[in-house]
Structures are given as C-alpha cells and as structure tokens.
Amino acid sequence: MKLICVGRNYNDHIQELNNTRPDAPVIFIKPDSALAQPTQPFFIPDFSKDIHYEVEILVRINRIGKYIQPEFAHKYYDEIGLGIDFTARDLQKELKSKGLPWEKAKGFDGSARIGKWFSKKDFVDINDIRFRLEKNNQVVQESTTAHMIWSVDALISHISEFFTLKIGDVIFTGTPAGVGPVDAGDFLEGFIEGQQAFGVKIK
Ligand code: ZN
Q1: Which residues surround ligand 1, an ion (CB under 5 A)?
Q2: Does residue 104 carry a pLDDT above 90?
Q3: Which of 2, 10, 72, 146 has the highest CB neighbour number within 10 Å of its CB?
Q4: What's the gap in Å between 28 CA and the centre of ligand 1?
C-alpha cells in the first residue's frame, strides 16, 4: 500500500510557510515503512532538530481506480480518518532550497501516523468535516474540510491520473495552518468532529 500526500491544500497554511498557491495539487508519496503502529510513540530522529506535526484528514481507498472522474470519486472510499504527516522541517527547507526532492524529510520511518477509521456515513457532509489537533491539551490546529482548495473527490480524480489507486492506499489530504515543532515529552491528540482519533507520545 502507498500513502499519497497532498501539500498546500489550505490557503492559511500556504501563507504561514510563505509558499505560493499552486495551479494543481502538490503530491508526494510516503513509503509503507513510514507508517508507525497506532500505539507506538513517535521517536524524534537524530537527523532533525525541527520535527513538525501536520494534522490531516485521511481517506482510505476501497477499490482499484485509474482516471477516476470527480463525480465517481465518492465510490472509491467509505472510511475517513485523521492522521499526522510528521515533517523534518529543517531538512525539508534545506532540500527545497537546493531544488531537490523532499522525500527524506517527509517519508522517513514513523513519519506517517494514522488514527482510528470512521465510516463515511458518520459524516453529514464530507466537504465540511471539522477536526483539530491538541498539543499538551492546547488546540494548535483547527479547521474544516470546507477550507480545502481541492476537495477529497477532486484530489482522488487528480491523483488517479498519475497513480493507480489500490485497495488500502491512504490519502493525506493536506494540513491547515498552525503547524509547529514537537519536543520529547509532548503529547499530541487528534479529534474529528469531537471524537478522539489518535493520541501520540513524543519521545
Ligand atoms: Zn502534510
């Protein structure tokens, strides 16, 4: 299975990193080795002094698809989740400045955290799901999928033009504003429509 991630999908986050709004979704892939077990802590790797959390709405693909039209995209998933795209921001900045791929900064072991899955039917409107991330019981990121530049269905359509979607693939749909660093001892907790999706200790 692959983890397909979307960058720059919320205007407020594009502004906080001084990035420009892209003409098409920014896509990158994390390998399956990036996935941590749900109960495992996140271990800060030696190669970074600036690991950031990015909370993101997740979609799990349930059918094989290629060239999926936006109007049929909803047939390719029936579960929604919440996760963290852990990012070595210092390494990412360095690679970006050299015009090199971000892969090491985004796809390292443990960099993908996936919480509990919820049935799509639990949500009134996929295009208005509220979610938040708390760090040590303080809200640090809070948004709704209504603020996405590209909706879940638009992303599935776009991604499937380049990558065949397979059963079990997970899409990380991008992060809103409020990204920030983690330190050993921190506790991250994610909520989707008020329900706890994950809790992660930082070590
Ligand atoms: Zn991200």
Answers
A1: 54, 85, 175
A2: yes
A3: 10
A4: 9
